[in-house]
Amino acid sequence: MTSREFDRIGVIGLGTMGAGIAEVFARNGYAVTGVEINDEALERGRQHLEHSTGRAVARGKLTEAEQAELLGRITFTTEMKDLADADFVVEAVVESLDIKKSVFRTLDDIVDADAILATNTSSLSVTEISAASGHPGRVVGVHFFNPAPVQNLVEVIRTVVTEPDVLADVQALLAELGKSPVVCGDRAGFIANTLLFGYLNHAVAMYESHYATREDLDAAMRYGCGYPMGPLALLDLIGLDTAYEILDTMYKQGRDRLHAPAPILKQMVTAGLLGRKSGRGFYTYEAPDSSKVV
Ligand code: 3HC
């Protein structure tokens, strides 16, 4: 049980993660306000949600009427001021400290004094982002995993000033959504990415040195260790640009050589090979955002 009542949820940024997070809340009956920077990005977010819920319809997990009801719970807007009645806002914009800080600064004048604000950053400092808000005690990190509607883990990041009742309410809210929250302090990478990205980076280095083929590297971890995807296929799902940024931030903060991005990663990003989202990464896909390898 949460001590606050959560009726309306705000999600800022409807990229892969933001759209997935909006879907999670709408699936659970919450009214959601999804905010994007312009009409084009808003339309992409709407399409992402239609595609993802359409997949559930195709698999017989949702009826068309339920899909329409779910999408009907989401209000799409380009105006941050439409978040005025939100009790819980999740920011999922690009991984830029300056942009995130400006979002939190703006939010302060819009939401009620007891609304909880969360950032879905995967490696930036939650403390620094929260300091831009006038109420840092009500700010936490909520780090969802990709695909957000499927992965149960959500890391909840507390800063040194996060209020205990805020932390408890966020954990309870996430548990109500069927998620499994874990709590950790504010360090780049949090728990899962710190452990995961050393492994992913190592796989890239093995691929780069022609030690094994991409197929064999992936098959080894799938069939030998029971991972649902091999490391290179997973990097394509995460997005190579996102992976590079996460590794670079962790490396700069912790100076652990495990996290020094393998050179080919940067080269692939520069060449526009971003993974599934661009249609090509370590593998080539039928179309951008498709999971079908050609
Ligand atoms: N959006 C919504 N739902 C999706 C989806 C997506 N992008 N991809 C798959 N699904 C759903 C399917 O609809 C299906 O749902 P159902 O069981 O209700 O019918 C279910 O997931 C299984 O999908 P598939 O049968 O198509 O495919 P798989 O069984 O191969 O599963 C996978 C796909 C869920 C992506 C699985 O391979 C997996 O779990 N991979 C590992 C993902 C992972 O490790 N994520 C964490 C990345 S790290 C991260 O996110 C942190 C960040 O900071 C970078």
TrEMBL record:
Give this protein's Gene Ontology molecular function annotations: 3-hydroxybutyryl-CoA dehydrogenase activity; NAD+ binding
Keywords, A to Z?
A: Oxidoreductase
Q: Where is the 3-hydroxyacyl-CoA dehydrogenase NAD binding domain?
A: 9-186
Name recorded for this polypeptide: 3-hydroxyacyl-CoA dehydrogenase family protein
Specify whether Manganese is a keyword of the entry. Answer: no
- What are the leading ranks of the lineage? Bacteria, Bacillati, Actinomycetota, Actinomycetes, Propionibacteriales
User: Can you give the residue ranges of the 3-hydroxyacyl-CoA dehydrogenase C-terminal domain?
Assistant: 189-285
Can the keyword Glycosyltransferase be found in this entry's annotation?
Answer: no
In its UniProt record, which GO terms are filed under biological process? fatty acid beta-oxidation
Q: Which domain of life is it from?
A: Bacteria
Give the protein family: Belongs to the 3-hydroxyacyl-CoA dehydrogenase family.
